[in-house]
Amino acid sequence: MITAIAIPLLFLYFYYVTRKERKQFYNKWLQIGKVAEESFVKGTIVDIREKTERYYYHYSIYIIDLLLQHENEKIAARIQFPMTDSLQKPSFQIGETIICYGQWKNRLFLFATYQTASTVSENLVYNIDQRHRRQGE
Question: How buried is 101 (Cβ within 10 angstroms: 0-12 exposed, 13-18 middle, 19+ buried)?
Answer without folding.
Answer: middle
